[in-house]
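Cross-check.
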Amino acid sequence: MTTIKEAMEGHFASKSDLVELQKAINTGASSAGDIIEPEIDPQLQNMVVKKYPFYSYLNSLGRVTGTRSNKPAFLKKVSGGAGGFISEGGTLTSATDSVYDLLTGTMTTWNFQLEITDQMIMGSQDSIVDIYDQEIQDGLEAHLGDIDRAILTGESGGNNPVGLSTLITTNTDNFGGTDEITDKFQLDSMCDTIMDAGGMPSALVTSSNVKSQLEDVLYPNVNAPLIPRTEMAFGFQVTRYDSPAGEIPIIVDPALAGGSDDEQILFVDYSTVMLKYLMEPRVIDLAKTKLTTPSVLASFQSFMCRAENFNGKIYGIKTKT
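Predicted model, tokenized:
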């Protein structure tokens, strides 16, 4: 069996070669020896859903896809048509066209440097540990962590994707850091607001602190093992919230761990968000200029939300102590 390290040895790409490699990705041309798609170790794969649950949730619903454009576009619906009841043979309701804005997603670049000395590689025993493969696995996990955090909390103005916490501006409720979640109606009211706008809440995403508050409110007299749960993905069960839109999962994501008295809950309509990869994480060899094996694990991706007003946010929630 050929290891990733063995497959990569002897293939070094110059800057001009990298241009050709990018063409190969988009056209299917045959320069596959210069670029390698690593596989996630099964043990890491089993942990992905627990460590990066929001990314896993979107992926399980088909919201993580590929694209062939570095400017992926989508239609944002601004207003819809109108209709109504009329009498038999009555005049048709006047026409009102739907209005859309054509928006373009911003492609972002992520990278993770991989450079190990030739001495280290030659002196290690593959039968014990494949150092290069281990570094690649560390890079893949770093990628998932960075993407998960960015699509939830990424701020505008940087090189990262802008996350939902920043994008959601219409349906918000600020607790000012003085109040915890104390009543189910606080959640139901936000869901109703989203549904009135045309959205459909499919999940709550929050921190472990707020999840504890929610369980106290939703299931005050229920022992932990008996708290109603729902399957989110891959057999992973999470606490369930019986919302006005039906039963939806409460996803606890480490990326939303807030500061003191600055917790938040995101109400997500999964149909409005999408993560598109122009290039999923790939190992690309770099030119060899010293006695090391230099390469980079890189990806190109764009995160889009076509209707932020179909989502919601409660923030400034007091930290439970």
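The domain at 170-272+307-317 is CATH 3.30.2320 (hypothetical protein PF0899 fold). The longest strand covers residues 292-305. Passed to J.P. for a second look.
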